[in-house]
Write a structure and sequence with these properties.
The protein has about 210 residues and is an all-alpha fold. It is built from seven helices and no strands.
């Protein structure tokens, strides 16, 4: 019964609470010890506790607080009031900083949730045929390119229409006209040849009559 009544003191004598974290671990402590930066602080704190140095640090803080209290008691009332106002302002500033830190954490969590929702929505859109939207953009760009090429071709056509292009539909008729022209040229040549023969014959006949 004596052990049960003094159980806390008994355990404190076996493993003092200030160094218990060096012997009893949970998942978070193991993860902290795996980090070189965090493990350095943990081991420093444990060794200070094992050597009793933490008591010296605590005593130093208590002495600093006591000295501060004596200085306040000896200081003029105006300075004390000014110090209290400064402390109040400092406390308000620290509270505002904590509130801002909490707000930042909340915003970061909301941002992460929004990003996850966006990714999920994009995945759903893609699964429901949303990739066709990207394909449509590609097709629209191709359409613009083709329209530009068509405009260039139409400009070339207009330039050709100002030249010999209107005669293209008359190609067959022009060929017939060319053949007919060749025939007429041949006939004209034949007529001229016959005319020359007639003149020659008439001259020959005239010479024969004179003879």
């Amino acid at each position: 019964s004596d052990l049960v009544d003094a159980w806390d003191e008994f355990i404190e004598n076996l493993i003092p609470s200030r160094i218990a974290h060096l012997f009893l671990f949970d998942g978070e402590q193991i993860a902290a010890l795996a980090d070189p930066e965090k493990s350095r602080d943990i081991l420093r704190t444990g060794i200070y506790g094992l050597l009793g140095a933490d008591l010296l640090e605590r005593l130093e803080k208590d002495l600093s607080a006591l000295a501060r209290r004596h200085r306040l008691e000896a200081a003029p009332e105006e300075q004390v009031n000014e110090l209290k106002r400064a402390e109040a302002n400092h406390l308000d500033a620290m509270t505002a900083v904590r509130d801002l830190e909490e707000a930042i954490k909340t915003l970061q969590a909301a941002q992460l949730t929004a990003l996850n929702d966006r990714d999920q929505t994009q995945a759903e859109i893609h699964n429901q045929g949303g990739h066709l939207i990207e394909r449509r953009e590609v097709l629209e760009q191709e359409e613009k390119t083709l329209l530009a090429q068509i405009a260039e071709l139409e400009e070339e056509i207009r330039k050709l229409q100002g030249g010999l292009l209107p005669l293209v539909p008359l190609e067959g008729l022009l060929e017939e006209i060319a053949i007919q022209a060749e025939k007429e040229i041949s006939l004209r040549g034949g007529k001229e040849w016959l005319s020359k023969l007639e003149i020659r014959d008439q001259s020959l006949l005239s010479d024969l009559k004179n003879a």
